[in-house]
Write a structure and sequence with these properties.
By secondary structure, the chain is mostly beta strands. The chain is 11% helix and 43% strand. Strand 2 (81-89) and strand 3 form a beta hairpin.
């Protein structure tokens, strides 16, 4: 299962499909968009510890509806990708990710204390969104992020390893990033999240057969509508 996750989390991003010209990620949203997902408890309020965590809505870990962003890739040609974000219905987020070789659609459902992954598959360029009843009928295939946001907390294959990290990206340096990590026998995957934007960096460190480290990163380079 560990090797399978390496494929899902690293290679789907870098190695799915063949090379070719980058396709447009324009999506067909006609008639389905209803604006950003409703926050569970309103906007984030100042506070510390448990009080602050309760004030953070899970929707704060995605960009707003309609956001487009580009990630700079290092270590693999498919590490570079573009995303387009949609909030078609309350508590649902859909992200199309285009790495130049494939377009991957991910559908998420927001719960009060978690974000569940409902779908992760390669799609055609302008495939319509599923309707609301179809998404409501979907069974989660994984957990994208989950509270409590404290070091050592675990969910699925992931462990929260830092809640106040600084992370450099081509776009800017972020403070107070949340870092989750997945470890296998010969690899480590990390994701860096920033409140109000979501993922700003992915990092995969793999051990080669000769014992050397091979690192692939995707870091936020450009984002609009923030």
């Amino acid at each position: 299962m560990g090797k399978h996750r390496v494929v899902m989390l690293c290679m789907i991003m870098f190695l799915l499909a063949g090379c070719g010209e980058r396709n447009s990620t324009t999506m067909d949203n006609s008639g389905s968009s209803k604006g950003p997902a409703t926050s569970e408890d309103g906007t984030t309020q100042p506070g510390k510890g448990k009080e602050r965590e309760k004030a953070i809505a899970m929707s704060d870990y995605f960009p707003p509806d309609g956001t487009q962003a580009r990630f700079q890739g290092m270590g693999n040609e498919f590490a570079e990708f573009e995303i387009e974000v949609a909030h078609p219905f309350d508590q649902y987020v859909i992200i199309h990710e285009n790495n130049g070789g494939a377009i991957v659609r991910r559908i998420f459902r927001l719960e009060p204390d978690s974000i569940n992954i409902l779908e992760e598959k390669v799609v055609e360029n302008k495939e319509d969104f599923p309707d609301l009843p179809a998404m409501e009928a979907m069974t989660p295939i994984g957990v994208y992020l989950k509270k409590p946001f404290k070091e050592g907390a675990t969910f699925d294959f992931w462990t929260i390893v830092d809640t106040d990290a600084s992370v450099d990206t081509p776009y800017k340096k972020f403070d107070h990033a949340l870092v989750i990590e997945e470890k296998g026998k010969d690899y480590v995957n990390r994701k860096y999240f920033v409140e109000g934007i979501g993922e700003v960096k992915r990092e995969s460190v793999m051990q080669t057969t000769d014992g050397e480290e091979f690192t692939v990163t995707s870091s936020l380079e450009l984002i609009d509508d923030i």
